[in-house]
Design brief:
The protein is an alpha/beta fold. The chain has 7 helices and 7 strands; from the N terminus they run βαββαβαβαβαααβ. It has a single domain, classed as NAD(P)-binding Rossmann-like Domain (Rossmann fold, 3-Layer(aba) Sandwich). Helix 1 crosses helix 7. The structure holds NADP nicotinamide-adenine-dinucleotide phosphate.
Length: about 240
């Protein structure tokens, strides 16, 4: 059996990931989100979780999986609650976005590695990052900072894994998924042009049909899992695959 733990499976990329993986009966998927929007699927189980409270998530114990052939954690859930420059932010929204974008992945990765470090089958953490982790974007400070933190969490995990025997090592990838037609993009297009100098670019991407579909982004992300042995680096962008 292949086991996938995926956050943010109620919409967008996460839902597409869960739906694609559920087509194969040899995959068992556990999804985490505040809402369950998946149609009944025998190999999908939903965990109701609000990542605004990562201390709740900290109690999540990954199960023992003696028949596993592959175990994958996909830290996909993401939030960008507002688009304003620093000085005009609602601090509670900032706290929420850091909780969802970096604290939840940090806590889940810790529990995942604790549970599976001594296994020998392929074990992969796939962090869904963003181009915004790697360059500043006007009015996206919290999102940029948290995604940059996710990239660094990823790189530190990979560094630490070298201290374990080769057969026990877990691999982590942090992957920018492109620009995708999801709820997050719907919200970005509603930003105030006075506050967000990049707005027109995102309006144009939609008008010109240049957004990836969630399915396309999901398939590209899953190709990283499939080809996990063939990458020299671990900070990736699907547009370079
Ligand atoms: N769309 C893009 O262009 C784009 C570009 C670069 C990177 N990304 C990244 O791709 C990932 C997926 O985003 P998406 O575009 O698919 O967005 P989306 O459609 O808005 O989906 C976000 C997912 O995150 C979950 N989530 C948000 N807040 C949560 C909370 N407090 N607790 C638990 N789950 C929560 C949502 O579930 P509930 O609301 O049901 O809880 C939902 O399933 C994110 O990490 C995002 O940063 C997206």
């Amino acid at each position: 059996m292949n086991y996938y733990f995926i956050t943010g499976t109620s919409s967008g990329i996460g839902k597409a990931l869960a739906e694609i993986l559920a087509e194969n009966p040899e995959n068992e998927i556990t999804g985490f989100a505040r809402t369950d929007t998946m149609d009944y699927t025998p190999n999908y189980a939903h965990v109701h979780a609000d990542f605004h409270y990562p201390e709740e998530l900290a109690k999540y114990d990954f199960p023992e999986l003696p028949d596993a052939q592959r175990i994958v954690l996909i830290n996909n859930a993401g939030a960008m609650s507002e688009i304003f420059r620093v000085g005009k932010l609602d601090n509670l929204k900032t706290i929420n976005d850091f909780s969802v974008n970096i604290l939840a992945p940090a806590v889940l990765s810790n529990n995942f590695i604790r549970a599976y470090q001594n296994y020998t089958v392929p074990r992969i953490i796939l962090n869904v990052s963003s181009g915004a982790a790697r360059r500043p974007v006007d009015a996206w400070s919290g999102y940029c900072a948290a995604k940059a933190g996710l990239d660094m969490l990823n790189e530190t995990i990979n560094l630490e894994q070298f201290f374990y025997p080769e057969q026990n090592r877990i691999k982590a990838f942090s992957v920018a998924p492109g620009v995708i037609d999801t709820r997050m993009q719907d919200n970005i297009r509603l930003a105030d042009p006075e506050e967000f100098s990049g707005l027109q670019r995102f309006l144009d991407l939609k008008t010109n049909n240049e957004l990836f579909s969630p399915e396309k982004a999901a398939r590209l992300l899953l190709s990283v899992v499939e080809k996990h042995d063939s990458f020299s680096g671990t900070l990736l962008d699907v547009r370079d695959l």
